[in-house]
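Researcher: Before we compare anything, I want clean individual predictions. No alignment, no superposition, just each chain on its own. First chain goes here; please echo the sequence and then give the structure tokens.
Model: Echoing the first chain and its structure:
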Amino acid sequence: MEKKYHVIVIYSKIFGNDILKFYEKSRVIELRKFINENFPFAQNMMFFSHQCRIVFLIGEGIDDFNETLDKIIQLLKEFYKQSCFLIGISSLHFIEDLNKAYKESILAVGYLNHNSSTLQIQRYDELGILSLFTDDKGKTNRYFTDNIIAQFIQPLIDYDKQNDTYLMTTLRMYLNNNFSQSKTSELLYIHVNTLRSRLSKIESLLNVKLKSSNDLLNVQLAIKLYEGEIFH
């Protein structure tokens, strides 16, 4: 059976974007030796550099992918004596589609670089619908995301701040519990009638009907975009 692979792209500002400076700063040959000496399973993966980035190729079926990733990150931190790395991980692809996998990893790194100040690792698969609003460099369509959050999120945030309420929390909980009023009210420690009153207020502020599939899609998308730290 043909094997599939993850492409993992490692980027750091210390590498720079000039190819000559990259080889000077990244010390790729020394890094390869360091990894081979300190990671007994290194022979089960491929490692090279491309476009001023360090790239790992790891096949499916590895015993613990997350543990392997953690070990790679640990060795990078030890070798470079710093921890400022952005790491993009592709979905699994066959060997003939590795160019697509590399592009996915680059997009994931670009997303981190342009949109997040806290995350250091991004799996392409976990971008989900966010990948529809990013270009091939990971930059988001800010005009679209600004507008959809302003329409479907900001009114709740403003109202909560002005009135010391919890409408945003209520909406998240309601959506996360598959629109179950009983489960949501139980988790929020409020009466179900109080929940219904809050949901009615949410609909009024956002000018939506939560039973409308189109309105619900817009609200869920807005929350996803907002929680994706596009504005942070």
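Researcher: Okay. Second chain, same rules.
Model: Second chain and its structure:
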Amino acid sequence: MATPEGSESLTCVDEFAPRDSASERTPSFATADGSLLSADQCVIKAEHYFVTGLVEIPVIGSDDMFSWAVWTSLSRDNFARSADLRDAPKREAEGPYFGWLATELSPYSPSTVNLKTHVHTRPVGQRPFIELEPTDHPLAVEQRNGITLDRVRDIAEAVLHPTGEGA
């Protein structure tokens, strides 16, 4: 997948898209030296580091949140620090880690890949909160301002019944 700068974007996302059990496969890099794959972490050849988290968007007129589960890249040092604190009590007191969104969310244009993020650790057993840098990107705007229930339905329709190019 190409980044806005035109270079290749290396992510766990494409390799780990949900698959039914009949077609499951192990990505080629997952067994390479220096690689790791779990539901929460991904390391590719000891060069690229990712964690999963939730981009949460308030649903206007309710106490509900709409959440996108996403991969976010981290620096080696931040990844190591987050791994060290993985099971630590009060780990949520740790400051946020800078990262880059590594998940393409198809209902949004332009691309969501490489949006700047801050990864906020939560208590043990909870996925991190992914805060987007406050830009004019539609996803960042929705995270700040919230979305209507109709927008939630539109997103569900787009994700569950994709049409057009790449569908």
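Researcher: What stands out in the second chain?
Model: The mean pLDDT is 86. Additionally, The beta strands are 36-37, 41-44, 48-58, 65-74, 97-101, 116-120, 129-132.
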